[in-house]
Amino acid sequence: MTLYRPFTCEDMLKFNRVNLDPLTETYAVGFYLQYLAKWPEYFMVAESPGGDIMGYIMGKVEGRTSDDWHGHVTALSVSSEYRRIRLAAELMQHLEDVSEKKKAMFVDLFVRKSNQVAVKMYEKLGYIVYRTVLDYYSSPNGEADEDAYDMRKPTSWDVNRKSIVTEKKVILPEELN
């Protein structure tokens, strides 16, 4: 039985196996600690009965006005041996529930355009491609940078679904608010 629980500082010593996936963005320790300190309710772990970290989600709530107040998925990763058993969907549901409680208008995330497995999963969870962000992901080995999809899902607070209407379908990273 999977245990879903809040992320702790000690989990940083145990989640390397999850972060070995080449599609998982890995951050400096200070970045994880900043999220844990500022948005602890958005940082959750899926743990196996044996105590292994199966996956985690890290996010935040942000925005300048009530119309753009939203939950954001910063990282979602599931270890390869625990995929396709709905862990990612459960972790996403947790983040969406927290966002609802915080009166967020929508939840958004960025995903590599080439990561079609993830794109399809997010679409099954109700997310739409809101826009494309050109060259969002930098390539560590000198290859061309990669575009990202900015995907969104409105919450119940967005009664008129304004958060998923855009006039500009392609933007540059510097145009992100």
What does this structure look like?
With 177 residues, the protein is an alpha+beta fold. It has a single domain, classed as Aminopeptidase. 21% of the residues lie in helices and 32% in strands. It contains four helices and eight strands; from the N terminus they run E-H-H-E-E-E-H-E-H-E-E-E. Strands 1-2-3-4-5-7-6-8 form an eight-stranded mixed β-sheet, with helices on both faces. Strand 4, helix 3 and strand 5 form a beta-alpha-beta unit. The termini are far apart.
What tags apply to this protein structure?
single chain; 177 residues; 8 strands
Task: Give me the oligomer status.
Answer: single chain
Poorly predicted residue ranges: none
The total number of structural domains is 1
Assign the CATH superfamily. Answer: Gcn5-related N-acetyltransferase (GNAT)
| Major sheet | 8 strands, mixed
Query: What distance lies between the first and last C-alpha atoms, to the nearest angstrom?
Result: 40 Å
Strand content: 25-35%
CATH architecture: 3-Layer(aba) Sandwich
Order of helices and strands: EHHEEEHEHEEE
Overall pLDDT, averaged? Answer: 94
- CATH fold type: Aminopeptidase
The CATH class turns out to be Alpha Beta
Rg over C-alpha atoms, rounded to the nearest angstrom: 16 Å
| DSSP, total strands | 8
Overall morphology = globular
Proportion of helical residues = 10-25%
Number of helices: 4
How do the strands line up in the largest sheet? 1-2-3-4-5-7-6-8
Coarse structural class? alpha+beta
GO molecular function: protein N-terminal-methionine acetyltransferase activity; protein-N-terminal amino-acid acetyltransferase activity
Subunit structure: Component of the N-terminal acetyltransferase B (NatB) complex which is composed of NAA20 and NAA25.
Domain N-acetyltransferase: 2-156
EC number: 2.3.1.254
